[in-house]
Amino acid sequence: MQAAEFSRLAASIHADETFSIADFPLQHGQTVTLRLRRFEVLAGRVDAWNRFPNVAVGAVYLRRVAADKVEAINVICPHAGCPVDYRPGGKGYLCPCHDSQFNFDGTLVAGARSPSPRGLDALEVEVREGSEIWVKFQNFEAGKAEKVPVT
Amino acid sequence: MRALLGWLDQRTGYKQLVDHLLLENVPGGSRWRYVWGSTLTFTLMVQVITGVFLWMAYSPSSQTAWASVNYIQNEMWGGWLLRGIHHYTAQAMNILLVLHLMQVIVDGAYKAPREVNYWFGIGLLLLVMGLSLTGYLLPWDQKGYWATKVATSIAAITPFIGPELQKLIVGGADYGHHTLTRFFALHAGVLPGAVVALVAGHVYLFRRHGLTAKEPRRKPDEPFWPEQVLKDAVACLAVLGAVLYLTVRYGVELAAPADPAENYAAARPEWYFLFLFQLLKYFPGRSEIIGAMILPSLILFVVFLMPFLGRWRLGHRFNLGFLASLLVGVGLLTWLAMHADQSNPSYVAAVKQARIDSERAQTLARGPLGVPAEGAVALLRTDPLSQGPRLFARNCASCHRFGGHDGLGAHLADPQSAPDLKGFASRAWLTGLLDPKQVAGTNFFGGTKFNDGKMVRFVRKHVGELDAAGRVELAKVIKAVSAEAGLKSQRLEDKRDAAEIEEGRKLVVGESMRCSECHQFRKVDEDATAPDLTGYGSREWLLGIVGNPKHARFYGKRNDRMPAFGEDKILTPEALGLIVDWLRGEWYGPEVASDSP
Fold first, then answer.
1. Which residues 108-137 on chain B approach chain A with CB closer than 8 angstroms?
2. pLDDT > 70: percent of chain B
3. Does residue B593 surpass a pLDDT of 50?
4. If you count residue pairs, one on A and one on B, with CB atoms under 8 Å apart, how many are there?
5. pLDDT per residue over B520-542, tens digit each?
6. Spatial distance between the Cα atoms of A6 and B392, rounded to a whole number of angstroms
């Protein structure tokens, strides 16, 4: 991948529906009012001898925290590089590989003895043109307590 | 014949070599417990031969790897058998290595003067594990891709050189062509070369020191030929038989093509690495290095030192106990990993989905378009049947439903606030919409602000009061409007009922059914206040309404909450096309190919 640049997500800051939870494994009768959704990040990518102008380079969870503010976190678990999923019951994220548990804001669930050395990696978000959501997509080195970008 | 062989022997001396090989002394006579070394040599030969044939059809790049393995598996003559033998023999080698190690420790064959040969054996064990690890990635399917990501992430926590080591293995910062070229060079060049070198040294040292007899000896000494050769041959055939049985009975999986943007919750290493995988779960945070490196290295160090430990009186017993507890520990961890997975419904569901995706990708690869030049990853990414439900669940199911669920089969707790789109624009769907009992139900207008709108009131009053003749006309209207969609599933009915559809079209614009009071149909009507019925439910119409429901042609200013997915660039045109094609049942499937005229 090239040096981290901002990529535009297929999301609008104004459309609340964009953020509503659709793919939660909820139990019967449960409701969740959080507004978040997984988005693919499309960007240019160079793979040795090929240059791809617009391919999926990863994915983020986008979370609405206020009417005009969203936060983005990389879906990759900082433990060993598996993409995390929602925890059953809408209680945050769970890594399907080694069971690390995270809250929706990406922090580690306290007392859960997760193998991950740090919380999920937050990414820089910018709102452009009034409604477009741009994310500076980066991957970070796995297995470390500190966030070191992979370059 | 004898003269010819004599001529050959004079020039090569092969008879002496054969005698040397076959007349090796077996102290205490032949025994079944000595067969493991031969079975390993045999499986190594099998791997070299099948590996070379696989090499002839394999292409290591991120665009071509999956397609070439799929070709081997599904197109090439005998390819499935070739790949199956290679796959299961690799697994057999891991088992045979453990059996061989057990026999060597139990019989004390690791003690002086055979230390070096023992270390060669341990080296071979590690090399075979390396071959398994590198081979797992080569098909570039979801399974190998995500499992290997974990393995290479672990390499990154190596002290001091971790990140550089990872980059060296992966061939850059990210997985791609160079990951495959490097793994393939390791798998087919470096590691097998090292294995052959170590095996040569291993066999040389074995012959130099001779076989370590199991005491007490039950029989007088025998030459290797014929008794021990027979036992070895039977054991090799048994291994081959088991491999063939597994290949024919279970086949070899090829998961969907690797896709860095598609989660793969079913990612697991091969079963013989599951104990390492499980071990990682117990070391939280910074202590990961203990489970991933320090503990395995310490164990390996003890195994390495066994010849020296074995010199002491209790040392041999310690070695036996250590090996036994190691095997029990590995077995227990493997069982824990499998048990945790089997009792985890998310994992079971992920495995099921992985199987569906795997079969679908292979079906598409066999289809009329085959694997596109940009690579196999495009197969599922451009397939409405695979992407439609996922996109629907993520983008539509917070309001709409599909047959009562979210498209992927999950039943949601959030209340349904927009129509159920399964079979949209089909005759059955329109019949429901025009049913006074159903029109204001949640599957149609119930959850929207139109639940007491003009259409609902119209259906309740006017349609509810239709007489028998009116109901016949209504059926024709439904057929006509539904025919606008041109649904693949209704192609035969639409063709059969062409006359009724023609009558229906006249009724739509006529006054008796009153459709044209609000809707326009086939000609521009400036006063229309409800969605256009021209091309209703067609691809173009659906792309229009999902792209921008506020357009005058659809709901205009009366639109209720539905976002303009195209106009506001919430979804790409490709994604919109996939959702629409999926809703309309437009995808490649063998059943469609066979029923086309």
1. none
2. 98
3. no
4. 159
5. 999 888 888 899 999 999 999 99
6. 27
| pLDDT for the residue numbered B261 | 82
Q: Mean pLDDT over residues B145-161, rounded?
A: 89
Strands A132-136 and A6-12: antiparallel
The whole-angstrom separation of Cα B181 and Cα B487 is 46
Residue B446, sorted as left (phi over 0), alpha (psi -120 to 50) or beta, turns out to be alpha
Rounded CA separation A111/B379 (Å): 42
Q: Do B285 and A115 touch (CB under 8 A)?
A: yes
Half-sphere exposure of A125 (CA within 13 A, CB side): 23
> Is residue A134's pLDDT more than 70?
yes
Smallest Cβ distance to A143: which of B284, B288, B570?
B288
Q: What ipTM is given for this predicted complex?
A: 0.84
A22 and B264 within 8 Å at the Cβ level: the answer is: no
Mean of the pLDDT values across residues B455-467? 93
Q: Does B368 contact chain A (CB < 8 Å)?
A: no
Q: How far apart are CA B536 and CA B477, in angstroms?
A: 12
β-partners of residue B405 are: B402
Q: Angle at the Cα of B148 (from B142 to B149), degrees rounded to 5?
A: 90
Residue pair B518/B508 in contact (Cβ under 8 Å)? The answer is no
| CB B38 within 8 Å of CB B21 | no
- For chain B, percent of residues with pLDDT exceeding 90: 77
For B157, the closest chain A residue by CA position comes to A143
pTM, whole model, 2 decimals? 0.89
Mean pLDDT of all residues belonging to chain B = 93
- 8 Å CB contact of B346 and A25: yes
Tell me if B407 sits within 8 A of B397, measured CB to CB: yes
Q: ∠ at Cα A74 (A147, A120), nearest 5°? A: 55
The confidence score (pLDDT) of residue B174 equals 87
pLDDT for B596 beyond 50: no
* Interface contact B480, partner A, CB < 8 A: no
Q: Which of A34-48, B7-21, B425-439, B474-488 has the lowest mean pLDDT?
A: A34-48
Confirm or reject contact between B572 and chain A (CB < 8 A): yes
CB contact under 8 A, B563 and A144: no
Preceding peptide of B113 cis, ω within 30°: yes
User: B75-108 pLDDT, tens per residue?
Assistant: 999 999 999 999 999 999 999 999 999 999 999 9
Nearest to B262 by CA among B138, B379, B401, B411: B379
CB atoms closer than 10 angstroms to residue A138: 19
Compute the C-alpha angle B146/B152/B155, nearest 5°: 155
Question: Looking at the DSSP assignment, which residues form a beta bridge with residue A41?
Answer: A58
Distance of CA B517 to the CA centre of its chain: 54
pLDDT mean over B125-148: 96
- pLDDT of the residue at B595: 37
Nearest-neighbour CA in chain A from B328: distance (Å): 22
- Give the length of chain B: 597
- Spatial neighbors of B319 by CB under 8 A, at least 6 apart, are B105, B110, B306, B309, B310
What's the DSSP call for residue B257?
Answer: B
**Closest in B62, B393, B412 to A26, CB measured:** B412
Residue B342 touches partner A, C-beta closer than 8 Å = no
Q: Is residue B561 less than 8 Å (CB to CB) from chain A?
A: yes
Distance, in Å, from the CA atom of A91 to the CA atom of A21, rounded to the nearest integer, reads: 12
Render pLDDT for B487-523 as a digit per residue (tens, 0 to 9).
999 999 999 999 999 999 999 999 889 999 999 999 8
Residue B59 CB contacts under 8 Å (≥ 6 apart), including other chains: B65, B67, B68
Q: A23, A37, A45, A93: best mutation site toward chain B, by most B Cβ within 10 Å?
A: A23
Q: For residues A39-46, give the mean pLDDT.
A: 86
| Residue showing tokens 């028998």 | B468
How many angstroms away from the CA of B288 is the closest CA of chain A? Answer: 7
